[in-house]
Design a protein that fits this description.
The protein has 476 residues and is an alpha+beta fold. It has ten helices and six strands. The chain has helices at 2-25, 45-55, 57-77, 142-208, 214-248, 261-264, 281-300, 355-423, 429-464, 468-474, and strands at residues 41-43, 83-94, 123-138, 256-258, 307-319, 338-348. Strands 2-3-5-6 form a four-stranded antiparallel β-sheet, with no helix packed on it. The protein has a two-stranded parallel sheet with strand order 1-4. The chain starts with a helix and ends with a helix.
Length: 476
C-alpha cells in the first residue's frame, strides 16, 4: 500500500519535470545550442536564470524584434523630411514625332518637339537632367498617426520581450526545482533500498536458522526488488530533469550540477506580494496590441483627406535634332542646350472611388480593436486567477512542509519498533515492510515538501509578473 504511494510521489515529480519540458520548449524545438560548457558547471538557481537570459534563443529573438520595432519608428519619422529626386539621361534615338494624344501608359517613351515634314531613320544624341524637391508641410495628422503606430509597436515588442524573459526564467526555475525534487526522491529511494537490503539479510539469517518460515525471505526479497525498481525510476526522472534544465539554459548538451543547499537549508516565512494585474507583462502585451490597432485606426481616418505638397524643380535638356528637321551629327545633343526651373503647390485629392475599400478597412480595424480589447480582458482574468491559485498552492505547501517533519519522526519510530518486534519474534515481516514503506514515503515527502514551497513562491512571482521579489528570497 505505502510503496504504491511512494511510487505515486515519484510519478508526481516525473510529471512535473516532463510537463515543464513540454510546455517550455515545444515552440522552440530545433533551435541551435547557444554554447556548450567543456566541463560540468554548478548552477545556483539565480545564476541559472541569469545564464538562460543571456543564452536562450527566444530571449535573443525577442531582443532583436525590439530592435526592429525601434528602427521602424525611425523609418516612420523620415516621412517628415523633404524628398529630393534627381536623374541624368543620355540616349541616341530617332526624332520622328507624331501629332496626337495617347492615353497614359508605361510602354512608349515620351517625345517632345514639332512634327517634322518627313520621317527619317537617322538618329541623334539627346540628354536630360533634373532634380525635384518635394515637401509635405500639411498632412492633417497622417504622419503623426503613422509614427504613433510604430511607437505602439515598440511598446508591444518591449512587453513581449519582458514576457519572454519571464517565461524563460520561470521555465528555468521549474526545471531547477524539478532536479532538486528528483534528487530528494532518489535519496529517499536509496535509503529505502538500503533498509530493505538489511532486512532481507536479517530475514534470510532467521530463515536459515529455521526461526522464520521461508515465505518471510520471499517477501523480503520481493520488497527489496521493488525498492530497487523505484530507485531506478527515480534516477531516470532525475536524468530527465537534468535534461530539462540543460535545455532551459540554452545548452545543447553537456553535464551540469545544481547547488540547492540555499533552498533546502531554509524555507522563507514571507510570501511574494501580489501585483496589479495590468502591470503584468502579459497584460501589457495585450494593451500594447490594443494601442497598435487604435493607431492604425487613426491613420486610416486620415487617408481620405487631401495632401498638400510644395515642389521645386530644375531641369535641362539637349538634343541633336533641330525644329526645321535638320539633324546635327557628331556629339551634338550630349550637352545641355536649355535649362528651366519651376516651383509650385500641388494638392493631391484621394481616390473618389476608394471610399468603399476604406470603409471596409475601417470596419476591419474596429473589429480588431474589439478583439484585442477582449484579449486584454482575458489576460487580466488569467493573471488574477494565477495570483489566487498561487496563493492557495503556497498556503497548502507551507502546511504540508510543517506536517512532514512530524510524519517523518513518527515513521522512523514506527519502523524502528517494527524491526525490533520482528527480531523479537513478536510480529511478521509484513508489518516491517509496511513500516519501511511508510518511512520511505515520509522521507520523500519531507524532501519534496520544502521544494514545493519554493515552487509556490516562484509561481507567485510569475503571477505577479516579475521575479525580483523571488530572487530576493534566495539571498539570505
Amino acid at each position: 500500500m505505502h510503496s504504491g504511494r511512494l511510487f505515486c510521489l515519484v510519478q508526481r515529480v516525473r510529471g512535473r519535470s516532463l510537463l515543464s519540458l513540454a510546455v517550455t520548449f515545444t515552440a522552440s524545438a530545433g533551435a541551435p545550442p547557444a554554447t556548450t560548457p567543456s566541463t560540468p558547471e554548478t548552477f545556483t538557481l539565480e545564476r541559472a536564470m541569469d545564464f538562460a537570459l543571456a543564452h536562450y534563443p527566444s530571449v535573443r529573438a525577442a531582443f532583436e524584434q525590439l530592435n526592429a520595432s525601434m528602427a521602424g519608428v525611425s523609418v516612420a519619422r523620415t516621412a517628415y523630411l523633404p524628398r529630393l529626386d534627381s536623374f541624368w539621361q543620355s540616349n541616341r534615338a530617332t526624332a520622328n514625332n507624331v501629332f496626337g494624344q495617347i492615353l497614359p501608359q508605361p510602354i512608349l517613351p515620351s517625345l517632345s518637339g514639332p512634327v517634322l515634314a518627313s520621317a527619317s531613320s537617322q538618329s541623334v544624341w539627346s540628354s536630360a537632367t533634373g532634380a525635384l524637391l518635394t515637401w509635405e508641410p500639411i498632412d492633417f495628422g497622417l504622419r503623426r498617426a503613422t509614427v504613433a503606430g510604430a511607437e505602439a509597436g515598440v511598446a508591444q515588442a518591449q512587453a513581449g520581450e519582458a514576457l519572454t524573459r519571464l517565461d524563460v526564467q520561470a521555465a528555468v526555475g521549474n526545471a531547477f526545482l524539478g532536479i532538486v525534487a528528483a534528487q530528494g526522491t532518489v535519496t529517499a529511494a536509496q535509503a529505502d533500498l538500503d533498509r530493505r537490503v538489511a532486512l532481507a539479510r536479517v530475514v534470510q539469517t532467521l530463515v536459515d536458522n529455521e526461526l522464520r518460515p521461508g515465505a518471510d525471505a520471499s517477501r523480503a526479497d520481493a520488497e527489496r526488488a521493488a525498492a530497487q525498481i523505484r530507485l531506478i525510476r527515480a534516477q531516470e526522472y532525475l536524468t530527465l530533469a537534468q535534461t530539462t534544465l540543460t535545455r532551459a539554459l540554452g545548452l545543447g548538451s553537456g553535464e551540469i550540477a545544481v547547488d540547492a543547499a540555499p533552498l533546502l537549508d531554509r524555507v522563507p516565512a514571507e510570501d511574494v506580494a501580489a501585483g496589479a494585474p495590468p502591470a503584468h507583462p502579459l497584460a501589457q502585451v495585450r494593451q500594447a496590441a490594443v494601442e497598435t490597432v487604435r493607431a492604425q485606426q487613426q491613420a486610416l481616418s486620415r487617408t481620405d483627406l487631401p495632401r498638400l505638397y510644395l515642389q521645386a524643380s530644375v531641369f535641362a535638356r539637349g538634343s541633336g535634332a533641330n525644329p526645321n528637321g535638320t539633324l546635327n551629327g557628331g556629339t551634338e545633343g550630349l550637352g545641355l542646350d536649355r535649362a528651366n526651373w519651376a516651383a509650385g503647390v500641388q494638392v493631391v485629392l484621394p481616390n473618389l472611388f476608394d471610399f468603399s475599400s476604406l470603409r471596409a478597412r475601417k470596419a476591419a480595424t474596429a473589429a480588431a480593436e474589439r478583439e484585442q480589447s477582449a484579449l486584454y480582458d482575458e489576460a487580466l482574468l488569467t493573471v488574477t486567477s494565477q495570483q489566487q491559485s498561487a496563493l492557495a498552492i503556497l498556503r497548502a505547501a507551507r502546511a504540508v512542509a510543517a506536517a512532514t517533519p512530524i510524519q517523518l519522526a513518527a515513521a522512523r519510530q514506527s519502523e524502528a519498533q517494527a524491526t525490533a518486534r520482528y527480531q523479537a519474534g513478536l510480529t511478521s515481516v509484513i508489518e516491517v515492510a509496511e513500516a519501511q514503506s511508510l518511512l520511505a514515503q515520509a522521507e520523500a515527502e519531507d524532501q519534496v515538501a520544502r521544494v514545493d514551497v519554493w515552487r509556490a513562491l516562484l509561481a507567485q512571482a510569475v503571477a505577479r509578473g516579475t521575479l525580483t521579489p523571488f530572487l530576493g528570497l534566495l539571498r539570505p
